[in-house]
Structure formats: C-alpha cells, structure tokens
Known about the structure:
Blueprint: H1 2-22, E1 26-29, H2 31-37, H3 39-76, H4 82-135, E2 140-143, H5 159-174
Amino acid sequence: MKRKITLFVVAMFLFGAFSAFAELKIGVVNMQRALDECDAGKAAVEEMKKIYNEKQQEINEKQNELKKMQEEINNQSSLLSDEAKQAKLDEYQKKLKELKRFVADSNEELKKKEKEYIARIANDLRKVVEALGKELKYDVILEIREAGVMYNSNKVDITNLVIERYNKEWHARQK
Length: 175
C-alpha cells in the first residue's frame, strides 16, 4: 500500500513538473540584429561614418603634404647642400611619424566611440527586453547567440518587437 502511495506521489510530482514546463512562456531575441536594425544603431553607424570620413580627409591631406615634401626633396636634391637636404629629410621623417601617430590615434578613437555606442544601445535594449518580458509575462527570454539556442520557432522570436519598442522610446528621447 505504501508503495502505491509513493508511486502516486511521484507520478503527481512528475505530472506537475511536466505541466509547469508546458506553461512556460519562452522568447528569444537576437541582440545583434536588434543593434543593427534599430534606429539608434543606424544613427550610430551614420555618426561613425561621418567621423571616419572626417579623419580620412585629414589623413589624405597629411599624405598629400608628405608627397609634396618628397617631390621637393627629390627635385631639389642636387641643388641643396648636405645640411639643407638632411634638414628637409628630418622634417619629412618627423611629419611621417606624426601621420602614423595620427592614424593610430584615429583608429583608437573610432574603436572607443564604437564601443561606447554599442554599450549604450545594448544597455537600453536590455531594459526594453526586461520590460517586455514583464509586460508580456514571459518566463524566460534568451539571447539567441549567447545562449546557444540551436533552434527556435518564429513564434518565440521577439526581436522585431524589441526593435519596435526601442525605436519608439529612442525617438521620444530625441525630441
């Protein structure tokens, strides 16, 4: 008799556990896609392009200046004294070193700016996901790439909803 009761309790526990899993509401979100497709992400990309183009223009100007210096050195080489030639070569080397430093600093600045944009937008997106999870009564929302999700149906993918909500909030803050 005790054995039947024990089996009944175990069966009820297992049935309860399975029914609890059947009631779970799970969603997945692709944060990379949300970052890429949300309006703030697109604006950040445009801002990064603008900064890049400004830096590239400065680099091109400095490179043209160096080309002119090199041409001058080559054209005047036979006319200049050794001291004057060495002074021009030293100045050329100095400007070349400055250009290399400027390029390295510009790349570092762009990387830093990109990380700042990504961190800020990703943080805002996480808040949106959390708010949607509470509002729509999800039990679990997984990031599709980080959680190792191997398959999900489109029914549980809330990425479009996250992008839509974030765009709405972002545009409201821009006013």
